[in-house]
Amino acid sequence: MAPLVFGRLVSWIILTAMPTRRKLLPFPKLAAEPPLERGLREVCRCGQTEALVLKGLFESEGIPTMLRSRMAHSVYPFSVGGQGEVVVLVPASQAALSRRLLFRLAPNPARSLPR
Questions:
Q1: pTM of the model
Q2: Chain-centroid distance, C-alpha 85
């Protein structure tokens, strides 16, 4: 008789759904890209070293520059792919001048200036 009871117990465990024990937590959503600061325009996206060189170039020409990144480079001094991407921002009034400076530095410049 014991094997039948055990068999019924096993079939009950397999055929019935387990009760939910815990509350399901929603998966966190990706953070939206922070809006650009008022009056600033994005000139390019690049790595930290190139961004620092561009900041020096623009500031030597009198263009105030701001760098924005999602990663604390002092904590994580490496970057993989777009993870360490830095956005170079300049005032909207001087965006065209900064793009012209970038156009002159390009190793193989395109036929027309970027807008």
A1: 0.60
A2: 7
